[in-house]
Write a structure and sequence with these properties.
Elements (H helix, E strand, L loop, with lengths): L2 E2 L2 H21 L6 E7 L3 H17 L2 E7 L5 H12 L6 E4 L9 H7 L11 H8 L8 H12 L8 E5 L6 H9 L8 E5 L6 H5 L4 E4 L16 E5 L3 E4 L7 E4 L4 H4 L3 E4 L6 H17 L6
Parallel strand pairs: 1-11, 2-3, 2-4, 5-6, 5-7, 7-8, 8-11
Antiparallel strand pairs: 9-10
The structure holds guanine.
Length: 294
C-alpha cells in the first residue's frame, strides 16, 4: 500500500510555522517581510499565480505589493521598474512573473534583479551559488520537493534518483540539489530528457523518480519499479466534460496505474504545487532576515 504525500497539509503546516516566526520577529522589532511581484499583461495563469502569492503573503503576515504593467511596456521601462524595487529598502523580495511578452528579453530582466532580492532564485548568481553549495535562494519548486522528502523522512542518501525534464526552474536545479553532499542530497542522479534512449529502463531502476517534463500522464506503471517514490511536478490543464469548470488538472504521472507500485507518491493537485508558494514565502523570510547574503 502506498502513502500519499500530502502537499496541501504540509504547506498549511509550514505556513503556520512561518506566520508564527513572523509574529515573533515583528514583536522583537524586526520589519514585516515584504514581497513585490511585477505582473506584465493579462495572462490568465499568471494572474492566478500572482493572486495566490498575494493571498499566501497575507496568510503568513507578510506585506505584498503587485505592480501591474501593460503588455506594451518597453524593456527599458520594465528595467527601470525593477531598478526602483532593487533600491527600495522597504521591499525584501522581488519576483517578475514569467512568461513576459515576446518583445522583452526575459533573461535580461532576471539578471537586472538584485541577487539579494531574487527570491525566485532565477538570477545566475543564485543558480551558481546553489551549484557550488553556497547559501543561495533556491528555485521554489525543487526547494518544495526537498522539503516534502524531508518531512516524510524519505531517505535520499545512496539512492538512485531519476529526474525527467531539464528546465532551468525545476529539472536542472533538482538534479544538482539531490546530488549535493548535504542533507537530502547524496543521491546518484540521472537527468533524463527528450533525447534519452530507453527511458523506461532508466526509470525502472530508480528508487526516486521526479517527473517534471510537462506531458500529461507520461509516466506509466511499466516505467516504475515496486516500492519507488514518485514525485509529480506536472500540471497540464486538459479539457473535460466531467468537471463543472470544463477543465481538469493532470500531472506527468498516470496516477491510478502508478500509485499501487509506489511506497510514496504525490497527487496532482495537492502535491508539489502548494509547496512551491511556501518555498517562495520561506525565501522572502530569509531575504528579510538577510540570512543568505549577510
Ligand atoms: N511562471 C511560472 N512559474 C513561475 C515562478 O515560479 N516564478 C515566476 N516569476 N514566474 C513563473
Amino acid at each position: 500500500m502506498y502513502e500519499l504525500i500530502d502537499g496541501k497539509a504540509t504547506s498549511a503546516a509550514i505556513k503556520e510555522e512561518i506566520a508564527e516566526e513572523v509574529k515573533q520577529l515583528v514583536k522583537e522589532g524586526a520589519k514585516t517581510p515584504h514581497l513585490a511581484a511585477i505582473l506584465v499583461g493579462h495572462d490568465g495563469a499568471s494572474e492566478t499565480y500572482v493572486a495566490s502569492k498575494e493571498k499566501s503573503c497575507s496568510q503568513v503576515g507578510f506585506n505584498s505589493t503587485v505592480l501591474r504593467l501593460e503588455d506594451d511596456i518597453t524593456e527599458a521601462d520594465l528595467l527601470e521598474k525593477v531598478e526602483a524595487v532593487n533600491n527600495d529598502p522597504g521591499i525584501d523580495g522581488l519576483i517578475v512573473q514569467l512568461p513576459l511578452p515576446a518583445h522583452i528579453n526575459e533573461q535580461k530582466i532576471i539578471e537586472a534583479i538584485k541577487p539579494e532580492k531574487d527570491v525566485d532564485g532565477f538570477h545566475p548568481v543564485n543558480v551558481g551559488r546553489m551549484v557550488i553549495g553556497l547559501p543561495a535562494f533556491v528555485s521554489a519548486t525543487p526547494a518544495g520537493i526537498l522539503e516534502l522528502l524531508k518531512r516524510y523522512n524519505i531517505e535520499t542518501s545512496g539512492k538512485s534518483c531519476v529526474v525527467i525534464g531539464r528546465s532551468n526552474i525545476v529539472g536542472k536545479p533538482m538534479s544538482i540539489l539531490l546530488s549535493q553532499k548535504n542533507d537530502f542530497g547524496n543521491a546518484t542522479v540521472t537527468l533524463c530528457h527528450s533525447r534519452t534512449p530507453n527511458l523506461k529502463e532508466v526509470t525502472g531502476q530508480a528508487d526516486i523518480i521526479i517527473a517534471a517534463l510537462g506531458r500529461a500522464e507520461f509516466l506509466r506503471a511499466d516505467m516504475v519499479k515496486e516500492g519507488a517514490v514518485v514525485i509529480d511536478v506536472g500540471i497540464s490543464r486538459i479539457r473535460s466534460d466531467k468537471t463543472k469548470s470544463g477543465w481538469k488538472l493532470l500531472g506527468d504521472v498516470k496516477f491510478d496505474e502508478v500509485a499501487p507500485k509506489c511506497s510514496f507518491i504525490t497527487p496532482v493537485p495537492g502535491g508539489v504545487g502548494p509547496m512551491t508558494i511556501v518555498s517562495l514565502l520561506r525565501n522572502t523570510l530569509l531575504a528579510s532576515k538577510r540570512e543568505i547574503y549577510k
